Amino acid sequence: MKVASWSRLVVLVVSAISSAVANLRRNIDDKFDFDYDIQVVQPLNNDCYSCASSAYLTVWNHLLIAKYYPPKNFTERCWEPDSEVGTIACTSACYTIVEEVYTHGVSGRAVMRGCVDKLLLFGLDVDIREAIISYAGECRLTDRQVLELVPLQPNNPVVLVCTCIGRMCNKDNAARMLSTAPRIMASSKLLVSFCSFIALLNAFVLT
């Protein structure tokens, strides 16, 4: 009887947490979801910084080379580009992506910069591409699956994406970008923690 009562209690707890996570995910989606109806006027002859943190080098040849355009530089200068960082011609918008990267058993953050049209070798979905460009000048928390990005951190499905329009406009300090969005990153970590906790509880119930 005690075992049955405990099992029912666990099921109720899992159900309550699942509902809370669903509400949290909806709140995040509502705040950061793309508006696909915005019409985008694309500028011409734009230049963007093109680089990636050194951390990407360890996974580039066996994970990313068949998916992403190669950056001009692999360098820690990518966190705050200067004249030593390469540029790339662009006819859309510049981007900066900050994400968690898990390499050699160590998790850390890395940054990648470039042109939206030259992120993926086979291109972004048209709706996604235009939505990203339409939010130029903003940073948004985005599910990496929406952008079809390669997962480099198994426990965090989100990346911070910032876009802008203008000559080498993606020059802002990436660490400062993160510091201006602490609530966004905190929400993603809370969501990941909830999901992990639910998975553990479900595993406990099944056993």
Automatic annotation (TrEMBL):
Q: Which Pfam families match?
A: Ly-6_related (PF06579)
Question: What is one Gene Ontology biological process annotated in the Swiss-Prot or TrEMBL record?
Answer: response to odorant
Which positions make up the signal peptide? 1-22
Report the domain of life of the source organism: Eukaryota
Has keyword Transit peptide?
A: no
Q: Which residues cross the membrane?
A: 186-206
Which PANTHER family does this entry report, sorted A to Z? Answer: HOMOLOG OF ODR-2 (TWO), HOMOLOG OF ODR-2 (TWO)-RELATED
Q: What is this protein called?
A: Saposin B-type domain-containing protein
Lineage of source species = Eukaryota, Metazoa, Ecdysozoa, Nematoda, Chromadorea
